[in-house]
Amino acid sequence: MSSMSRTVPPTADVVIVGGGVMGTSIAYHLAEAGVHHIVVIERGELGSGSSGKPIGGVRAQFSDPLNIELGSRSLRAWQDFGQRPGADIRLDSVGYLFALTSDQQVADFETAVRIQNSLGVPSRMIGPREAHQLCPYLSTDGLVAAAYSPTDGHARPGLAVQGYARAAARAGVAFATHTTVTGLDTTGDRVTAVHTDHGRISCSTVICAAGAWSERLGAMAGVHLPVRPVRRQLAFTAPLAPPAPRIPFTIDFASTAYFHNSDDGLLFGLADPDQADGFDTTWTPDWLTLFRAAVQRRAPALADMETTSGWAGLYEVTPDHNALIGRAGAPHNFLYATGFSGHGFLQAPAVGEIMRDIHLERTPFIDVTPFCADRFTTGVQTRPEIHVV
User: Fold this and answer.
1) Which residue in 62, 70, 179, 288 has the fewest CB atoms around it within 10 Å?
2) CA–CA separation, 148 vs 145, rounded Å?
3) How open is the CA angle 249-119-103, to the nearest 5 degrees?
4) DSSP code per residue over 96-124
């Protein structure tokens, strides 16, 4: 990309910190709206943080109406990504299938499906037999019901980052990779400059899209962004013969074990409930013991499949598993979009639009004030997201 460099310009209108899918989406949407002099700062290569994961789920199945609408609007954008901004992200609309094993889970998902349907999402509750037909690996033993939406699926975050970044670069956005933010200058209620290890940038607006590293950046501006880094791991099977059937993104909700197609095999994942906070992204294959124990009950054929490699990345987790989106009270020109708790990729197109509108002081398509960062300190009632993996 011609505008990719390790040098930073001395001035900018907007500095975006974080070159993952959120930062590049924001840059693209701002540039498309005619905002000039945008710089994206990334400490590594673009997409090397949480967005580096090989496959990202895209869905509108959530319990909170705000997340449903962010997911639904983003699904439409992912489906149109080949035309706008113009890139193949290998979107596979296989659906999402949540396997439910208790009456309480079923009641919670029935409520969520009603909300989703009211917002135009074609999700539905199905019985064990239909769930098994959709995903032949599923055992119906102990399976009470499932929730399914056919328009969900998965895509490749790395390709999405590249697509957004190329389109943004064509519109004049500058990308400073391998560049670390070392501090911020504030004057009164404004950020006036961003310091990096490659120079200082005077600026009019700073947007934090730094994912798991956002709390550190917020502290530089005096803004509390309650985001903690949590390692998540996944693994890939050896090529399967005969090939795996085309299945939905399937989740055993009780254990969080999930699996779906990946090239010539399957991808396995699971959220380790005992995973300590931290920035370590070392892949440790012993976590697969947890996955195999979970699928032994729910999808027993997977328990003995050979795995060949894996990957570890960071979730950026907030106390209620909802994002932090908005503008700081002070400094007033510090904006943030972070803390997506595992659903940042799937919400990135909609959030890019919203951040564009917040910057331009337009009214976004949906009111995101419930996701303001100070909700945990002002006594506002939070609304924890239930559909979290």
Assistant:
1) 288
2) 10
3) 55
4) EEEEE-SHHHHHHHHHHHHHHHHTT---E
The DSSP code sequence of 250-277 is EEETTTTEEEEEETTEEEEEE--TTPPB
Reference 26, options 380, 354, 325; nearest CA is 354
Confirm if 30 and 38 have CB atoms less than 8 A apart: yes
245: DSSP letter: P
Find out whether 347 and 312 touch, Cβ atoms under 8 Å.
Answer: no
- The single residue listed with the structure tokens 């501006």 is 221
With bands split at pLDDT 50, 70 and 90, how would you rate the model's confidence at 385?
A: confident
Q: Sign of dihedral through CA atoms 185, 187, 188, 190?
A: negative
Q: Does residue 29 sit in helix, strand or coil?
A: helix
Torsion of CA 44, 42, 356, 187, to 10 degrees: 150
CA dist 284 and 234 (Å) reads 10
Residue-wise pLDDT tens digits, 133-171: 999 999 999 999 999 999 999 999 999 999 999 999 999
| Residue 219, amino acid | A
Any idea what the Cα angle at residue 320 is, between residues 388 and 356, rounded to 5°? 90
Whether 308 and 333 have beta carbons less than 8 Å apart is answered as no
Reported as a pLDDT band with limits 50, 70 and 90, residue 1 is very low
Sheet containing 249-252: give its strands across.
Answer: 124-126, 145-149, 96-100, 249-252, 257-262, 265-270, 228-237, 307-317
Query: What gap in Å lies between CA 359 and CA 295, rounded to an integer?
Result: 46
CB 177 within 8 A of CB 169: no
Alpha helices by DSSP H, listed for 102-231, are 103-118, 128-134, 157-170, 214-221
Number of Cβ within 10 Å of residue 318's Cβ equals 24
- pLDDT (tens digit per residue) in 42-64: 999 999 877 667 689 999 999 99
Q: Comparing C-alpha atoms, which of 297, 211, 205, 317 is closest to residue 253?
A: 297
Give the CA distances from residue 126 to residues 145, 151, 209, in Å, rounded to whole numbers and listed in that order. 6, 15, 38
